[in-house]
Amino acid sequence: VQFAESGGGSVEPGGSLTLSCAASGFPFSDYGVMWYRQGPGKEREFVAFISSDGGGSGYADSVKGRFIISRDNAKNMVYLRMNSLKAEDTAVYFCNVRYRLSDWWGQGTQVTVSS
After folding, report:
1. Are 21 and 77 in contact (CB under 8 A)?
2. What are the CA-CA distances from residue 101 to residues 22, 78, 97, 98 (Å)?
3. SS3 at position 31
4. How confident is residue 21, by pLDDT bands cut at 50, 70 and 90?
5. Which of 19, 49, 55, 101 is the Cys-Cys partner for 80 at CB 3.0 to 4.6 Å?
6. What is the predicted pLDDT for the residue at 92?
7. pLDDT band at residue 46, thresholds of 50, 70 and 90?
8. One-character DSSP codes across 39-95
């Protein structure tokens, strides 16, 4: 299983970014996928989930109404659209899948929100 996250960068508060995650090595369209993040000095935390067919999703309270998760099963891609970014959204963002009883992670992409 491999994930390649991209799209991170530096942005001012109130700005937007879209993260992308390219997945391979498992039957992508059969599995829900999650985004997690880990801020400086913090534990890794759940951000968002999308079901295998994209029909269901869920979000952490801290990002609800600001972030939107989506997927393209034809391209094995998951996206995270992040709007109204805040300083506290600064973190490394990771894709995750639970496949064959193991958690699989990408290398992550850094998002920095600062003026």
Report:
1. yes
2. 21, 21, 10, 6
3. coil
4. very high
5. 19
6. 98
7. very high
8. -TTS--EEEEEE-TTSS-EEE-TTTTTTEEEEEETTTTEEEEEE-S--GGG-EEEEE
User: Could you give the CA distance from residue 56 to residue 65 in angstroms, rounded to a whole number?
Assistant: 15
The pLDDT of residue 52: 97
By the 8 A CB rule, do 4 and 22 touch? yes
Percent of the chain with pLDDT over 90: 100
Q: What angle do CA 108, 114, 115 make, to 5 degrees?
A: 155
Mean pLDDT, residues 98-106 taken together: 95
Which residues, in sequence order, are CB contacts of 110 under 8 Å at separation 6+?
8, 9, 91, 92, 93
Instruction: Give the whole-angstrom CA distance, residue 15 versus residue 114.
Output: 10
Cα–Cα distance between 87 and 11 in angstroms, integer? 9
Angstrom CA distances, 87 to 22, 84, 111, stand at: 26, 10, 10
Residue type, 92: V
